[in-house]
Amino acid sequence: MRALQLDAIHQPAAVREVPTPVPAAGEILVKLHAAALNHRDVWIQMGQYAGIKLPCTLGSDGAGEVAAHGPGVPADAPAVGARVLLNPGLRWGDNPRVQAADFVVLGMPDPGTFAEYISLPAHYVRPLPAHLTFEQGAALPLAGLTAYRAAFVRAQVQPGERVLVTGVGGGVALVAAQFCAARGAEVWVTSGSDEKIARAQALGVRGGINYKTEKWVKALVQQAGGAFDVIIDSAGGDAFNNLVDAAAPGGRIVFFGGTLGPIPNLIPGKVFWKQLSILGSSMGSGQDFDAMLQLVTEKSIVPVVDDVLPLAEGEAALRRLEAGAQFGKIVLRMVE
Asked: Which residues span the domain enclosing 131?
């Protein structure tokens, strides 16, 4: 089979022929039709991810059809030929509050989804919601799971609450905005692009502001009619202090990334006097994944796909993601 593999950091990923996996006991072999990129793939390639083990097949998100069952697959597992997607969070463990020490994300060190086939234990393979294409389904797992846990498990977003999602345009931020709007929250966004804010409004977002605007916090709070009950962020850095100012008394700030680095000069008094909760979140449990799929199915939510490229253009897709111009997920198509 063909797979997009990375041999060393700071080197291009290349498509090559590798052995097709054979499903072991309890495993399902999936013929992948589509796989979505995540910034994790770029960070691994750049040597900016913990515990890198190379060579590897990159890719955490995938959707396709069941090709074969290994021995002992449960009777209620998706049948051969069924349309499925994959839960990329492996070995979460028994504690719903936090992942186990051996938790990993699919796509390094375990072989990932930038390949024509993948074999996984049956409990990581779930039916693809009927209203989604393979490309849309591939755009969902990692981003959807991360967004769902941040919004509803950690921050406990409620209908009618005012929610701010920062950096809309990225996969997790977009689907977090979609999820919160679908649950009846009033969603606002930030971006460095006016075009991305306008496109987000077409997805049910109430409005937003360009964070390059002078005194944007004051302007956005005035525009929204008040401060924010929940703020969902992935940047951290010095900009995090603006979020403390934008939060309503008793508000919750949840973050699942730190692309801008450490948070300097955070003033404790602003946090404790406003009774704020600052929450960390990352990926999610199998129960979170199933709850996320239920929400997507009930509300017919469609993840935003920015572009679809063939597997042979995987390296070009990584560079497009690194440039940060996308709106939604970049997807690789395995079946040509």
From this structure: 2-140+303-333
